[in-house]
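Minutes, project check-in
Item: structure for the 498-residue chain
Input as provided by the requester:
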Amino acid sequence: MAPPAPSNPVPIPTLFVLIPLFFWAICGASSGVWWPLVSVTVAGLAAALCWLLRRRDADAERRVCVLVLGDIGRSPRMQYHSLSLSKHGYEVTFVGYLDSKPHRDVLREDRIHVFPIAEVKGLGGGPKILTYVTKVTIQFAQVLAVLLMLKPHGHILMQNPPGLPGMASAWLACVLRGGRLVIDWHNYGYTIMALHHGDSHPLVRLAKWYEHVFGPLASQHLCVTNAMKEDLRRNWGIKATTLYDRPAAIFGETPPETRHELFVKLSRTLPAFRHSGSDDDNVMEKTVFSERDMDKNTVTLRPDRPALLISSTSWTEDEDFSILLQALQEYEEFILTGETLPPLICVITGKGPQKEHYKKIIDSLHLEHVKICTPWLAAEDYPVLLGCGDLGVCLHKSSSGLDLPMKVVDMFGCCLPVCAVHFLCLKELVKHEHNGLIFSDGPQLARQLKTLLSDFPSNDGKLRAFRKNLHASRGERWDDNWDQHVLPLLSSSSSSFS
């Protein structure tokens, strides 16, 4: 049986007494009978509304609202939360923008109900500060209205950032309806804003104040690194549970058959994947990476294939892709000056505001031995592609220095070695010279690519050693990690009201 709903902080009968007295004191005894009558009516309506909002059925504690003020399809950690909740019998309402399709496991799960909301744009003209204020105000009302319209939930689990203004809306909804707010701290919103505006900008200072005020009001907290856990404790007064990102079960090395199927699929839209020669009288189905013998129905990787370099991004300011482009140009120069290196196909996946800016730069490079593709992949194709890669590159440079790139977690789940740009707590994930390499700039990355790919496609060398180490260190997957750290947290917070 689900535990009973938490008791009201102010009993409803008390409201019938306090509110009329408040109005009576303001109006005075000489105001006649109308003001007391109005005050009693208002008090009655307020009490009725309070009772309606906080009325909870027996199943409320088994319902969780997962809230993302962003694109659900590009929020893998929150999708994993939803799937884990559903596996343990929770009914999940997944609220957020539906700009891209979530993973099919989320869409197929009967206990997960996606509730799309429209992204608020704000005023179309006028000063930027006015546009931002109106957007935040409308968004606050929008999110609060949605949360009050849904059935009561035992918990609201929200992602931060973005937390402005959803954090305040979720907290108020919990106050009005009796649920508990759980914040999953991926980073700090104000540090991301500071990348564009600078630390001293009024909006950045406002965002920092906002997070410091509303963040500690949540009942429970999760975070992505021990460094962030310590920062939340020391500077925010928040006790958080570290839930490291772990790869889901869908991430692993891709077998040759599945690789070829994906390469054929991608070759229809990406010329870099297409085989330019003949198809041997239709006996062989070829891509630049693989070939299928149609008579024997066998798939092999081509010995003359290029190396497949993979990076993924949200194309935001915390990832400087000029570093990668500089490294690829230097790699091209290595080949032109006689170095024995394989041609390179670099696939950069993702959507985001700076994508068109970088696509124009990419189109102007005209590299001969390096091809760069920027596709948007279906959620089910992304882990398959990672499992096909030869090397991953991560350009995420944390705005706070306290979060870790989930893209690297997914790559490691596929035993894909990584070159990652350095920042403060990266060592919690990437071990230099063990499962990858850490770089600081484009020339250093170019030298690392040269070293790692010098004997490609041979199985000897550092790439093989890194892959072997990743095989040996494959630990918990997401489900086990979540069951260990989050499930007890939800159960304890529910039982505290029983």
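Outcome recorded: The chain is about 40% helix and 15% strand.
No further action items on this chain.
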